[in-house]
Structures are given as C-alpha cells and as structure tokens.
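Hi team,

As requested, here is the filled-out complex form for the zinc ion run. I kept the field names the same as last time so the parser does not choke. Let me know if anything looks off before we queue the next batch.

— J.
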Amino acid sequence: MVCNQCQEIISDYIDGSLELGEQVRVERHLADCEPCRAVRDDLLQIIHFSQKLPLQSPSGAVWARIQSSIEAERPAGLRFRFKVWIARLRDRHFDMSIPQLAAGALALAILVSVSLLALRRGDPPSADMADGQAGLSTNLLSSTDLQQMEQRINELKETVDQNKVAWTPELRVTFDRSLLYVDQSLIECRRELGNNPADPISQELMLNAYREKMRVLEEFARF
Amino acid sequence: MATNAISIKSDAGLSAALAGDSMSGFEELYRKHYRRVYSICLRMTGNVAEAEDLTQEVFIQLSRKIDSFRGEAAFTTWLHRLTVNQVLMHFRKRSVKSELTTDDGEMPDSIDPDTINPEAMPIIDRIALENAIAQLPPGYRTVFVLHDVEGYEHEEIAKILSCSSGTSKSQLHKARLKLRRLLKQRAEAA
Ligand SMILES: [Zn+2]
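And here is what came back:
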C-alpha cells in the first residue's frame, strides 16, 4: 500500500468501516509511515474535538422575535387571554379574609403588569377584543365616572385613616401593601393610557384598578 | 366559595394563567433546546446572523406543529431534524451550491511528506476548529457537522441529503482533510 491509497481510506479506517483485510493493510502501512500516521492523528484530533464542541447561545433578541412572531400569528389566542383575565377580574368575590384581600390586590397588580407587557409586546389589540363580553365602548373612562370614583375613594380613605389607629400591626401592613399594589397598577395604566389614550384594554384595566382600590378601601373601612 | 378566581399561590398560578395559549410552556421548551438548535444552525451556516434567523424560523415552525408532538419520545431527534431541514432549505433558497452532486474540482488534500512537521502538533484548539469549520465549503460543512459534530450516521445523512451513503462518506473524508489543512495553515501562521 502506498501513501495515497492509505490516505484515501483513512477516514473509513478511523470510523471502523473497512473490511478486515483492508484494515490490516492500512495498519501495516501506518506502522512504517510517519506522514500517514500524522494524518491519522490529526484527523483523530479533529474528530475528537468536534464531538466535544460546546453549545453556543444566540443573542437574547432571538427569543423576543420568536415570541412576537408567534403572538402575531395567534391574535385570537391573545385576545382570548385578555378576555379571560378581564372576566376574572370582574367576577371576583368580595368577601375575603385579610390575606385574601392583599392577594386580590396583588393579583390585580400582576394582571395589569402582565397585560400591559403583552400589550406592548404583541399586536396592538383591536377594539373588538374587549367588547365581546362587556359591551365596552371607547369612552369607557368617562371623566364623570372617574370623578365619582375618586370622590368615593377619598371618602373611604378618610374613614380608613380614622379607624387605622386601632388596627393591629398585621392589618395595617396588609392594608398598606394592598394599596401599594393597586396604586402601582393605577400608575402603570395611567402611563399606558398616556401613550395610547383610546386603547380599550388599558381603559378596562384602569377601570378595574379603580374598582379594586374602592374595594380595598371598602373592605378595610369595616375594621 | 369565597376564593379568588385567579390563583396566585405560586408562580405556577401565573404560568397557568398564561398557559391560555401555551406560551409559557413553549418558552420552557425554547430554554431547553435553543442552544442545541442554534449551535446546529451556526455550525452548518458558519454565520451568526443566519444562524439566529434560522433558529427563529425553527421555533416558529415548532410552535405551528407543537401540538402534534406533545409527549412524543423522539421529540429531540425530530426537532434536530427539523433544524437541519430548515438550514438545508435556507441553502437551497440562497442557492448555495452543494458539492454533493458534482465534485467541485477541489482535490482531496494529499500529504506532501516534505512539509510534515511533527513538532507543530497538536494542531487543534477549539476556536481554531470552529473557525475552520466555518471556512469549509457548504457541502463539506453540512456532512461534517452532521456526522462528526452531531453524530448522525452516513445512512441518515444520505436520507436527509438525498444522496448515497458513499457520497456522504467521501464528502466527510474530504471535509476532514480540508479542515486539517486549514488548521495547519493557521498553526503555521501563528
Ligand atoms: Zn504513508
């Protein structure tokens, strides 16, 4: 066997796919030929290291792009999700224990953040998204409604502040935390509406945040 | 029942809420597989931007087909196969000439005994190997990545590329020799 012949089949030799007779002839040649041994050793190294190449990571932007493509392909799914969330907010029961009160406010805060995040990330939601169940119109947040709610909130706040001195520390902490969550939600909604005043989802979330604030204050006004 | 309609006991509650369109489950799937998928794309194309685009395309395809593959044992194999096919489709669209059907005239490297320098060994470091793989002609690179990096058998490669397994074998051999030459050139230049 000459060098050319040997190197022609050296990959097959390395991969173990030669017939026994040929394998023996290659081995005999390799025993006497340093250049061919060098080729074999180099290829063995290449193969060895190729099997152990570490995995690489793409930039973080790839997942963001995947996510928005998928959501853009599934506007119905996104719409459905908003409807479910909004319905859940609306249907919540009102008589809760103290931990549940805080939980309600936290749930609102989470929903508002997640909804607004999805809103910014995905397709701008169309107006029909919210109106299926609720019959919402774009002037969802009329200024008189808001004024009435704010007035009621202020009244309740006064009552609560008067009662608060007699509360247990636990109740006080729960109240403060609940109010904080709700106020955060209100801030987020307000910011979103500042950018996009006619957006029905943001309006609905804002309305729910106000309702939640009233609810929190009503519940705590009883203590 | 005086309970919240929304479960917030744990993150699981939130992910359950999100599971309305199974995006959170899909993200988990992405986290588990994206590096492998991306690495296949990157090594087959030798190009970061193309590999990222292809990774994106693979997972979008996956999201379209995911429901039919839930719980399937061979999911990983299937996903890698989907990835390879996506890259090959991309090559075809870009009309990258694959040297699989016609020999491109590049002669298999043979050794000139005079240039052998045993002291230059080892020729390999990882970065150099990655770079050399990226420099291979696409046809060589495809077979090399599939066989030596991803561990496919020649029979599988032949099926994927619609060629004979003999062709796959000879492409692999040429690819290895070409890599060796690229690595040696680099080692000698250093
Ligand atoms: Zn020899």
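Two things worth flagging: Chain A touches chain B through 62 residues (CB under 8 Å). Residues 47 and 53 of chain A are 10 Å apart (CA to CA).

Thanks,
J.
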